Amino acid sequence: MTTVTELTLSHLRSHHRTSLQLDERPVALFGANGAGKTNILEAVSLLSPGRGLRRAPMDELIRRPEALGWKVTSVLKVGTSVHEIETWAEPGHSRTVRIDGKAAPQVALGHIARIVWLIPAMDRLWIEGADGRRRFLDRIAMSFDPKHAPTVLAYEKAMRERNRLLKDMVRDDHWYVALERQMAETGITIMQTRQAAMDRLLLAQDGAETAFPAADLSLIHPDSDLPDTADAFAEKLKESRPADLRAGRTLFGPHRVDLAAVYSEKDVPAAQCSTGEQKALLISLVLSNARALAEDEGAPPIILLDEVAAHLDTARRAALYDEICALKAQAWMTGTGHELFEELESRAQQLEVFEEDGVSQVRQ
Amino acid sequence: MSAPNDLENLIDLMARLPGLGPRSARRAVLHLVKKRALTLIPLADAIARVAETARECLNCGNIGTTDLCPICESEKRANGELCVVEDVADLWAMERAAVFKGRYHVLGGTLSALDAIGPAELRIPKLIDRVTTESISEIILALNATVDGQTTAHYIADQLEARVKVTTLAQGVPIGGELDYLDDGTISAALRARKTV
C-alpha cells in the first residue's frame, strides 16, 4: 500500500512548521473552519505532479507576511520501498522537486505515488462547464498512466500555437500541417488513454460491493465522433481549418470532449440528480478509481477527501469508512467536528487541527 | 574588501557568461590579472579581434570570421547532404563528432507562433533556396525533440519532402548509456527503432 509516514509543512499557507508522524491507517483531520485542515491535504496533493488540489499558483501557497517560500517534505512508503520527497517554491519561482535527495522533474512524482482527491469545489462538477469534468477524467487517466500528463501538455502547447496562427490569420499551410500533425499524434493518444481509463473505471465499478451509486459514463464530442487514427485526425483538423479561422480557435479535438454520467439505478443524468446524489456519484467514481489502482498496481492510492463526511448521512458515512478500510487505503479526510469520524474509532488516526495566533497547529 | 571599479566591472561582465557565477568570475579575473602577460593580454587581443571580425556565415548561419564559413567554402563538403540544426552550438557538437561530411544550415531557433517566430525569422526561405542552388540530395533534420523542435521539423519536411529526401536523427539509447536511467519515452522510441544485430 501507499502510505505517507512523515509529512512536514514549512511556511505553507497557515502552517508555520507542522510535522506529522503517521502510520498506515486513514487520517481524520478535524477542527474549526479556517484552522488549516485543507492546507494539509493540499500539501499531500503536492506529492503528485501539478499544482495540487486547489490548482493554486505556487506563490499563493507562501505563508505571509514572512513570504520566504514554502516547502513540503515527506517520507512515502510504497509497498516495500521508501522514498523521501521534498518539494518547494521560492517567491517568483516554479516549484522544485527532489526525490531521494536528487533533483527530479515533477512528472517523476506520478511514477512513485498515485494520489486521487475529492474537494468541495468539485460539488458542481456535473452542472458546470465541461472543463472541470475533462480535468477530472484526465486526473483519473493520469493515475492509471502517468505519461498522460506530458502528452496532454504537448497537445495543449501545439494547440495554443495553432490558435495563435488562427487569431493572427496566418495563411501558411505548411505551418498548420506541422502543428496539426503534432496535435493528431498526441490527440489520438489522449483519446485512447481517456477511453481506457473510463473502461477501467466502469469495470471496477461493475464488480464492486458498494453503498455508493453506479454511474454509466460516456465520452461526448460536441460535433461528431473523433477519428481513430492520427492521419484521419490530421485530415479532420485540416478540413476544419476554415471554420477555425473564422472562430479564431480550434473547434475540434480532445480538448472539446465532455464526460457524461448517468445515475444508473434511476437512469437520470448526473446534472439532474440531487446535490447529495451528485456527491455520492463522485465518491463512487473516486472509490472505483482507487479499487482499480489497488488491483492493477497492487497498492491502493492515497485518497484525499475534503469535507466529505459532512455531506453524508450516518449510514453512508459509515459505509464510506468501511470501504476505505477494506481497500486498505490511507485516506486523508477533513471535517469540522470529531463526531463526524466517530464511526472510524481506532481504525483511523484522529488529528485535531486548530489555529493559535494565526498559525495552524496539530494535536496528534 | 571589494575590488576596484574596473575590476568589479570586469567581474560583473564575466559573471554573465554561461557557466560562470560571481564566485568563479572573481577567481577567473584574479587569475587573469596575475598572469597578465601569459593570459590577460593575449585574451584581450583575441576578444578585440573576434569583436572586429566575428560574423554569421551568409550561407548557413554558422559563426565565423569571414562572409562564408570554412564549411561552406570547402568544395569537399558539397556532397549533397545538408544537416539542419537549431543553433550554432548544435553545429559545433556535430562537427566535434567529425562524422558528418556534408554542409549545415543553422535555423537560429524554432517556429513559435506564441513568440512570433515564423519561417522568415528562421532562415527557412534560405534553406529552401539552398536545396535548389546547391543540388542537395538529402536534408537531415537534427532538431530538438521538443514540441517546437518537432513542429519545425514537420514544417520543413512538409515543404521539402516532394523535392528531396528528408530524414531525421534516430532517437534512443545513448552510447555508453544504461537503460535503467532512461525515461519511458526514450525507451519506447529505442524499441520502435530496433535493428537486427
Could you list some keywords that capture this structure?
heterodimer, A: 364 residues, alpha/beta, Rossmann fold, six-stranded antiparallel sheet, 9 helices, globular, B: 197 residues, Dna Topoisomerase Vi A Subunit, Chain: A, domain 2, 2 domains, two-stranded antiparallel ribbon, 8 helices
Q: What do you see in this structure?
A:
The complex is a heterodimer of chains A (364) and B (197). By secondary structure, chain A is of the alpha/beta class. Chain A has a domain at 1-113 and 301-364: P-loop containing nucleotide triphosphate hydrolases (Rossmann fold, 3-Layer(aba) Sandwich), CATH 3.40.50.300. In chain A, 38% of the residues lie in helices and 24% in strands. Chain A has helices spanning 37-45, 107-112, 130-144, 148-167, 173-206, 230-239, 241-247, 275-297, 314-327; strands spanning 2-12, 15-21, 27-30, 70-78, 81-89, 96-99, 102-104, 115-118, 215-220, 258-263, 268-269, 302-305, 331-335, 349-356, 359-363. A six-stranded antiparallel β-sheet of chain A has the order 2-1-4-5-6-7. A six-stranded mixed β-sheet of chain A has the order 8-12-13-3-14-15, with helices on both faces. The mean pLDDT of chain A is 93. Chain B is of the alpha/beta class. Chain B has two domains: 2-53, RecR Domain 1 (Helicase, Ruva Protein, domain 3, Orthogonal Bundle); 63-165, Dna Topoisomerase Vi A Subunit, Chain: A, domain 2 (3-Layer(aba) Sandwich), CATH 3.40.1360.10. In chain B, 45% of the residues lie in helices and 11% in strands. Chain B contains eight helices and six strands. A four-stranded parallel β-sheet of chain B has the order 4-3-5-6. Chain B is globular, with a radius of gyration of 21 Å. Chain B starts with a helix and ends in a 5-residue tail after the last helix. The mean pLDDT of chain B is 91. The A-B interface holds A 147, 150, 154, 157-158, 160-162, 164-165, 168, 170, 172, 174-175, 177-179, 181-182 and B 111-114, 118-119, 147-148, 150-155, 158-159, 184-185.
